[in-house]
UniProtKB/TrEMBL annotation:
This is Diaminopimelate epimerase. It comes from Knoellia flava TL1. It comes from the Bacteria. Belongs to the diaminopimelate epimerase family. Homodimer. The gene is dapF. InterPro entries: DAP_epimerase_AS, DAP_epimerase_DapF. Pfam families: DAP_epimerase (PF01678).
Length: 297
């Protein structure tokens, strides 16, 4: 069990990833760990810490800090307390839900093929499907639907190395996303995402930015710059946002088919669900367990 040992100078952890979107997982089953921004940054540091795109704390829902999360305890006993690598608190993480659920199953905390977990973005339904884990990501919406339907976009994105901004569409997945369909002639693999793309108008709470290349019917490739992290190998909510935005541009505002999305870390499936909800399915892996000496971070 990857929880806190008696020696508070050290901390047990599990390292996992979903299509190479990687996380440090901490089992805090007694809700004793104070996971603040500084500790999160130190754990996620790829040079001096364990390294990861974020940190996931496994904690009883009834012990969550937020009253809105605690209210979910009767339907989902475990809360995915997710923090970005920079220490900022995040609503949820799509790839992280699969890693979280896989950890619960490995540890025998959850044994069913289907169950719910609690996040700051509400309940998320989990279903194990062979080698894949599917997450009901909940409802999605276009941020400025009137403008999107009139113009096909609602914002502009400027990427380093390109003088002209590109039109983009904002999608709310309970966290913010800005999706760009790349113009012909722009090489997705060659884009400079070391620097955060500049989005206008500036989103009030920041945004993840997805750059998309259409490969074929219901098939796209994507790279993403995540707020609070930088470029990652995959982003679950971003994959959903990218598929939904591309479907909208294709004239299907109510998606009815599965989408295949290729990211640098692998391949994911996006499936539209009734009620304007969406499901994400893909692999998850737990690759290591260990113990870190906190005094060395």
């Amino acid at each position: 069990m990857a929880d806190m040992p008696a020696d508070s100078r050290s901390l047990r952890f599990t390292k996992g990833h979903g299509t190479e979107n990687d996380f440090v997982v901490l089992a805090d089953l007694d809700a004793r760990l104070d996971l603040d921004a500084d500790l999160t940054r130190r754990l996620a540091d790829r040079h001096a810490g364990i390294g990861g795109d974020g940190v996931i704390r496994v904690v009883p829902t009834a012990s969550a800090d937020e009253e809105s999360v605690r209210a979910l305890a009767d339907r989902a006993p475990w809360f995915m307390d997710y923090r970005n690598a920079d220490g900022s608190v995040a609503e949820m993480c799509g790839n992280g839900t699969r890693v979280f659920a896989t950890f619960l199953r490995r540890e025998g905390i959850e044994t069913a093929d289907e169950f719910q977990i609690a996040t700051r973005a509400g309940l998320k339904g989990i279903r194990f499907e062979g080698d894949l884990v599917a997450t009901n990501m909940g409802r999605w919406r276009l941020v400025d639907e009137d403008r999107a339907r009139a113009d096909g976009f609602d914002s502009l994105v400027h990427v380093t190395g390109h003088s002209d901004p590109w039109s983009a569409l904002s999608v709310d997945m309970s966290n913010p996303h800005t999706v760009v369909a790349l113009p012909e002639g722009v090489d997705l693999d060659a884009l400079d995402l070391l620097h955060a793309p500049v989005v206008r108008p500036v989103p009030p709470h920041g945004t993840n930015v997805e750059l998309v290349r259409i490969l074929g019917p219901a098939h796209i490739a994507m790279r993403v710059h995540e707020r609070g992290v930088g470029e990652t190998r995959s982003c679950g909510t971003g994959v959903c946002a990218a598929a939904l935005a591309t479907s909208f541009w294709a004239g299907d505002p109510e998606p009815t088919r599965d989408w295949t999305v290729d990211v640098p870390g692998g391949r994911l499936r996006v499936r539209a669900l009734p009620g304007h909800e969406v499901e994400l399915a893909g692999p998850a892996a737990l690759v290591a367990d260990g113990e870190v000496d906190l005094s060395t971070l």
